[in-house]
Specification:
Blueprint lengths: L1 E5 L3 H16 L4 E6 L3 H8 L3 E4 L8 H18 L3 E5 L1 H13 L5 E5 L10 H15 L4 E4 L2 H10 L7 E3 L16 H10 L8 E6 L8 H11 L6 E6 L11 H10 L6 E5 L4 H5 L4 E4 L9 H8 L4 E4 L4 H4 L6 E4 L4 H12 L2 H18 L2 H14 L10
Parallel strand pairs: 1-2, 1-4, 2-3, 4-5, 5-6, 6-7, 8-9, 8-11, 9-10, 11-12, 12-13
Helix pairs in contact: 1-15, 3-4, 8-13, 11-14
Length: about 400
């Protein structure tokens, strides 16, 4: 059996899809990837993954989008895949059209957060809903990362209710486990990042450096907190992709300097040692206001036993239990963000309690093995490799 995953950029395959791809490769399926060329694709290819570089623009551009559909259709027809599994909004639409044109019998879409959501403008909401509704006609199964998207889809009549199911999002709870950290290595890591020994409170976030991930609001909140917590350090983990439609790196640096807090902020760039970096933090923050499904960064932080402060948007409010595993604040509000952080920064016992509850919640609901098993069952329901796992 042959499966093709389609997404816009290699970083999605590398960071989000690789665990489930590895799972199915270990069960003797042929799993390949199609996405835009780049350094991440080269890394994946060097690691032995079959990746087909096809440019997939992350913005609506009729000429470029049609070219992507044509190239994807050619690839699918040539390799005769049994199932095409698509991800990320524009790539998911183009991939489904190509799969249908190529005659694929099974088309699956993982909605990493529908592109219409409560932070959308009315015109954006209508446009993206119509696009998703039309694309649903050529989709055999729509999988969501949160329950809220299922409720919204059923309420609005996006597709027949039997066509949409919960997949969730998960984390390797053995890799993201505080007990496995080495104290000597953590001390060296801290020094390598240039964090002074005097910084006894560290908060941080993970994500691409784009405006909608909210790092600007985190910086504003930090500036408000520093008079009360002069030994506070902020860690911003992640980078800006060349294909990001809303580049924010330069603007973020300007904001940091304009507030005069550059000595208290560390930008790590792209990193692979995420568990170790999370191990340096006292609080994880995700001030996002974009179309999240269920943020991987939050479940990774919770798996590391961290309290979380995040925004009241889809996905975030499902992963974090307000007043038990963390605090939820309004999006795009640095004042409320600072207030929530101040509560946790002032109370070590509260941080510890929330962190313990976070780890327990992850073990029960967000272990990635649960996601693999659900996906395996959905594939089997579609008639994919029903005998494979019995061998």
């Amino acid at each position: 059996m042959k499966i093709l995953h389609i997404c816009a950029v290699g970083s999605t395959a590398q960071a989000l899809l690789r665990p489930q791809i590895d799972y199915f490769l270990s069960h003797n399926l042929s799993v390949e990837i199609a996405c835009s060329p780049g350094s991440e694709v080269e890394k994946l290819q060097q690691q032995g993954y079959i990746v087909h570089p096809i440019q997939i623009d992350r913005q609506i551009s009729p000429v470029l989008n049609l070219r992507s559909i044509y190239q994807l259709t050619q690839l699918i027809q040539k390799n005769r895949y049994d199932l095409v599994h698509v991800h990320t909004p524009i790539a998911a639409v183009l991939g489904r059209i190509a799969a249908k044109l190529a005659g694929v019998k099974r088309i699956v879409y993982t909605a990493h957060g529908f592109p219409f959501h409560d932070q959308s403008s009315p015109s954006q909401y209508r446009f993206y809903f119509i696009v998703e509704k039309l694309a649903a006609f050529i989709t055999d199964l729509i999988l969501t990362q949160n329950y809220e998207d299922i409720a919204t889809a059923k309420k609005l009549g996006l597709c027949p209710s039997e066509k949409i199911c919960y997949l969730g999002n998960g984390v390797d709870i053995n890799r993201f486990k505080r007990d496995r950290l080495n104290s000597t290595h953590q001390t060296l890591l801290r020094k390598s990042l240039g964090i002074p020994d005097s910084r006894d409170l560290i908060i941080g976030t993970i994500g691409r450096i784009i405006h909608k991930k909210g790092s600007g609001y985190l910086i504003e909140a930090a500036a408000k907190l520093l008079p009360h917590f002069p030994n506070l350090q902020v860690l911003i983990i992640g980078s800006q992709l060349s294909s990001d439609p809303e580049p924010f790196h330069t603007e973020l640096i300007k904001k940091i300097h304009s507030l005069g807090i550059e000595q208290h902020v560390t930008l790590t760039g792209e990193r692979q040692d995420i568990p170790e970096l999370l191990g340096l933090l006292d609080i994880f923050v995700l001030p996002t206001f974009t179309h999240e499904g269920l943020p991987r960064s939050i479940v990774e932080a919770m798996s590391m036993g961290l309290p979380v402060v995040t925004t009241d948007i889809r996905g975030c409010r499902e992963a974090v239990v307000h007043g038990k595993t963390g605090l939820i604040v309004p999006p795009k509000n640095s004042e409320k963000l600072a207030e929530a952080l101040k509560i946790l920064l002032s109370n070590y016992e509260l941080r510890q309690g929330y962190g313990k509850a976070s780890r327990e919640r992850i073990e029960v609901q967000y272990d990635e093995e649960l996601v693999f098993k659900r996906l395996n069952n959905y594939y089997q329901d579609l008639g994919v490799y029903s005998l494979c796992l019995e061998q």
